[in-house]
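Hi L., both proteins are below.
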Amino acid sequence: MDFGLKPNHGHVPVMRDRMADLLAPAIEAFGADAVIVDGTLGAGGHTEHFLDTFPLACVIGVDRDPAALRDASNRLGRFGDRFVGVQARFDEIGNAIDEGKGPVFDKARTAGIAGALFDLGVSSMQLDQEERGFAYRVDAPLDMRMDPTTGITAADVLNTYSHGDLARILKTYGDERFAGKIASHVLKEREKEPFTRSGRLVELIYQAIPAATRRTGGHPAKRTFQALRIEVNQELDALENVIPVITDALGSSGRVVFMSYQSLEDKIVKTALNALSTSTTPAGLPMDLPGTAAGFRSITSGAEKASEAEIEQNSRAAPVRVRGVEKLSHPSP
């Protein structure tokens, strides 16, 4: 695999081959009825690989970013009607399947989804687009919306949230030790002038965090920017919402895989998938009670990680944690 940004249209797909391997048994079993959901289309790298690898399969690609969806659709145009793009937040995929028109959606409703992938977090393309405000190393407008046409911005959060709410999101979503102190600085500074650009926020964070702490643990603004991005895009709510939606949409023996890049995402995925793949029969009984058998089984051993070789070529693969399940064909009664 070529790990260069240019041949990958600005975003190198993490663990591309492994994602295809995890979904392959289901996609091959579905044959000509196989429909894959790429819930986080981005630059289309995973989808392109799926369409090349599984010549009978079709893909529904979902992205809330209209520019990303447009560019990926152009990239995938060579596949014709085997690819269908949907602009939506990924937890809206159930409505898209129910209401979509055309043979791909007809297959999805009739046979169920064969495979689904959710590559969570922000894409390299968005990080590299300075005007989006995701990156803390350049001065840019404090936007951070994955869909820049709707919703609140990071500036709105900084300029309107109470001290308690700001501290809460910085602590909860960013694991920021100095959440309260940063929130106090924000409230003081916004009285002078509303926040509009990231450079001013980075300067404030440097002032709020003690010098000794700034020298360790990476860039001091990293945790605050992560927390703001998650809040602006309601990323964890969307993740919690989509798990029951996509697992319900899977056909018999269908598979879904989640790629998480920070601990909050992975905790949500781990908890939900463990619940789906665990019997609810009280411990000690010799067999499952009716209606309590697990409807899914895990297809990963714990959380899989990228190889050292891949991380060396693509450092953004380092934090990924992969978990997946398969819908059982005939769960016990």
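That was the first. Here is the second:
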Amino acid sequence: MPHLQTVFAAVLLCGAAHAQNMIRGEYWIDQDLGFGANNSFALAQQPDVASIQLPISLNGFSPGVHTIGIRTIDASGHWSLTNFSTAVVTTEPEPPLLTRVEYFLDQDPGFGEGTEVWSGTGTDAPGIGSLPDVSALAPGSHTLFVRTIDSAGHWSLTVHAPIVITAPDVASDIVRVEVFNLTTANDPGFGSAAALTVTEPQINLVEAALWSDDPLSIAQGNTLAVRSMDSNGKWSLTNFFSADVVHTNVADLFTQTGITTYPNPFSEGITVRSEDGQPLRVVLYDPQGKLVHDKVLNGETYIDLGQHASGTYTAFFWKELERIHRVQLVKH
């Protein structure tokens, strides 16, 4: 259909040499109907009108070039010369009708040979939100290409977007767990910290540090770090947790935790019992600060210390994950 235009005609008006006020003007398109018989427009009465802008509608005119004539008349009835301008009416193209949408991955198979994702007739292709089939692609970077064709057989430009295929996570067994005390030392590096015994392939990391029989220094601090490595050699994130050290005595230890240790003082050894029967980690240091016992106990257990020196022992009872009870025991 013709594109409707409103033309603002800016023309230089040439009038008579004598000074007379311009009172009105007129314009015509293509055909001059005669002086005073065309489309009239008003003017502010003044002796000189150098230029003028008029909104001229070309609605209804056929596509192509058209001629516009403009002139004015003064108060004495004298007409100016007719000024000419041109205007172009263009045809507004009909929107193309899409008939097919196709895509391809990485390598162009040729126009019309891609994977079809929509076909029909319309100015828009609905429902092209489905994901392409990437099941055959190897992990890594790839490129997705999409293009359309219209009812006249004209192809669009081929648009493209990058996509990244990642390998699926495969569950693997934990083969190493290590723990270190951040309070007493820096991270020694992956694979260099004290390793804990792995009893189950799906071990709970934090509980591993609590219940493992492997020695772990907690005498000087309470901020621990634990991590694991799977059978593929991949390390987990390093997990951090704090266990507050609570200083107490034998009587309060029982009141607060249900843990009994006796006798105190002792001469050969001590007996440790947890009232609820839950596992309990007991760590003992001799008077010189040497680790002499670090075990996870179940039920009532006797710890033989007969071969060790007399003096004040420091005992840590670890039953709750975030709390360690510290008790002093005396050997005669």
